[in-house]
Design a protein that fits this description.
alpha/beta; Nitrilase/N-carbamoyl-D-aminoacid amidohydrolase; 11 helices; binds N-(4-carboxy-4-oxobutanoyl)-L-cysteinylglycine
Length: 317
């Protein structure tokens, strides 16, 4: 159900029908209208904002041409800085140049965008020099329709694995969740990267109507190899949502590389798209919401969930 587009060369994954994409965009023989298509992207951002923008722009244009209704870019699509100071100094407000170029692109291409992990200057920037890690949804008219600020920050030391990051040194945690956004592919619930490890968030989004969960990410090589796919599939299985996770891949600068494998998972937990661990690219996935409905109808786990008092009963005993 997917293909990888790597620059201008097109690579079909061996086990998949070669005409799949062609088929995707044609009218099908069945009576149901074709399901809308999401493009889940992966990029290798560097500290060079201009180069990052042109790489993302190319992916968005390609996704638009191939019939995607909504395109997903990863955390740090704007840049990945090589130091705390660089990360802070390159940041902008939502009203700055970077986001206005993306809103114009969305309008010109007629696609919705999920811009995961924008380095957003806070309101008190002059005073505190801190940013938010913001996931922005832009509609096909170029309006910003939602902004979610990453609420779990990645302060993690794994000495044996060469991972040492302290996101809270430059980032303010978001204060609240945002309601799922109605888009042409369905109701999209917003998270960012490390948020993926907190099922409380995904379950709350599901309870508030999410059909698709999104985790734009920049996972480390070590934690990605160990946890990435398992976590994404678990979130899909528990919530019976599609899970779309755009990703950073490869080497950003001397000190940092990312795991890649931008992934699309269906509500049953099957991986329906994977961008691999090598290079930038995208997967196109049909978002057939009937899959959400039938999965939930056949195994009604949300109805089987006990009330909050039940899960608190241990602390009372
Ligand atoms: O730093 C930036 O510029 C953009 N932000 C990130 O890359 C963030 C914070 S350092 N990365 C993660 O959350 C990785 C999570 C992860 O790898 C895991 O949960 O295992």
């Amino acid at each position: 159900m997917f293909r990888c587009v790597l620059g201008s060369s097109v690579k079909y994954l061996a086990s998949l029908p070669v005409l799949r994409h062609h088929h995707l965009l044609q009218n099908r023989m069945s009576t149901s209208p074709p399901a809308p298509v999401a493009a889940v992207c992966q990029v290798t951002a560097t500290p060079d904002k201009e180069a990052n923008f042109s790489a993302c722009k190319q992916l968005l244009e390609e996704a638009g041409q191939r019939g995607a209704s909504m395109v997903f870019l990863p955390e740090g699509f704007d840049y990945i800085g090589s130091s705390r100071e660089e990360t802070l100094s390159l940041s902008e407000t939502l009203g700055g140049d970077t986001i206005s170029r993306y809103t114009q692109l969305a309008r010109r291409l007629g696609v919705w965008l999920s811009l995961g992990g924008f380095h957003e200057r806070g309101h008190d920037w002059e005073k505190d020099r801190r940013i938010y890690n913001s996931h922005i949804i832009v509609n096909d008219k170029g309006d910003i329709v939602s902004v979610y600020r990453k609420s779990h920050l990645f302060d993690v030391e794994l000495p044996e694995k060469g991972v040492s990051l302290r996101e809270s040194a430059f980032t303010i945690p978001g204060a609240s969740m945002v309601p799922p956004v109605q888009t042409p592919i369905g109701k999209v619930g917003l998270g960012v990267c490390y948020d993926l490890r907190f099922p409380e968030l995904s379950l709350a989004l599901q309870r508030h109507g999410a059909e698709i969960l999104t985790y734009p990410s920049a996972f480390t090589l070590a934690t990605g190899a160990a946890h990435w796919e398992v976590l994404l599939r678990a979130r899909a299985i528990e919530t019976q949502c599609f899970v779309l996770a755009a990703a950073q891949v490869g080497r950003h600068h001397d000190k940092r590389s990312s795991y890649g494998h931008a992934l699309a998972v269906d509500p049953w937990g099957d991986v329906v798209g994977d961008c691999g661990g090598e290079k930038p690219g995208m997967v196109l996935v049909e978002i057939d919401l009937e899959k959400v409905n039938t999965t939930r109808r056949n195994m009604p786990v949300q109805q089987h969930r006990r009330d909050a008092a039940f899960y608190h009963s241990l602390s009372q005993s």
